[in-house]
Amino acid sequence: MTEVAEKVPFIRALAEYTAHYKENWSDSYMMQKQSQAKRMQTYFGNRDVKSIDTLDIEEFFKWCRSPQPGFPQPLSNNSIQKIRTHLYDLWKYMKKNQKKYGIRENVVLDAEVGDIKKFEATILNAEQVNYMIQYAINNEKDYSTLALIGLPLLSGLRRGELCGVKWKNIDFENRLIDVEYQRCQISTGSIEKVPKKGNDDGHTREERKQRYAALPDILVQMLEHIKAQQEEYFGIRRPCRIRLCGHENEEDDIFVQKVGNEG
Prior knowledge:
By secondary structure, the protein is mainly alpha-helical. It contains 11 helices and 5 strands, in the order ααααααααββββαβαα. It has helices spanning about 10-20, 25-45, 55-65, 75-95, 100, 125-140, 145-155, 160-165, 205-210, 215-235, 255-260, and strands at about 170, 175-180, 180-185, 190-195, 210-215. The strands form 2 sheets. The protein has a 3-stranded antiparallel beta sheet, with no helix packed on it. A two-stranded antiparallel ribbon has the order 3-4. α6 runs antiparallel to α7 and α7 packs antiparallel against α10. The longest helix is centred in the first third of the chain and has 19 residues, at about 75-95.
């Protein structure tokens, strides 16, 4: 009589877990969770949570690595690791209420994500950096590759921050880049959020982790060339906001596909 008689469908348990914690999630984090939940709900559906074991979790990870109906884009190792964390937290939540869910162990704890290739970071020396920049200058008809090399190398921008930079964030006079937002790719598209570890609902620069990055003279020259090239390409003859990187058109924003394609 001490066992749980009622079967708890995975979909219901996930919904209850989300309702319990979502008030502490930022908007961008909520979007990420919802994207992950769609895959989990499709795979596990109405299965009783007590019937799901560690091997089932590993099979789900394998399923995520291949195109599936409704999910044509397979997930990367990084995305699967995030889903693993989502599932781990779900089972941790259910284990706290054994009378309701009947969960006595966290089956995600021992689940292996699969074969993950580990890459060792290679730090370029000054000669190698100069060679990359010079090669881009000599072999590119536009400045998009130069921007992808120059901005992270010389300003220290992360990939997501690079894709979130707009012309309004470039302060040519004071030689600064205002790192206001980053643009991140998720399975359903892309989202814009504040820099890493920032609070999306923050009211101050400190809360949002908004900061300034350096803008060396060589980057000023490069960006001036890019701006002029964009204005010529788009036929712009008036002051206008132009996003350096991105994926879609918005009012008063012009995106450059090549520079902004994170894929």
